[in-house]
Amino acid sequence: MLSNKSLRILIADEQHFNRLRVERWFNQLGCYRVAPVQSLEELLTLVEYASEPFDLLVINAALAGGKLDLLDLCLDNRQLDRVLIYDGQQAQLPPIPACEQQKVQVSHALLPDLALIQRLMAIVDPRLPFVGTVISVR
Question: How many angstroms separate the CA atoms of 121 and 138, rounded?
Answer without folding.
Answer: 21
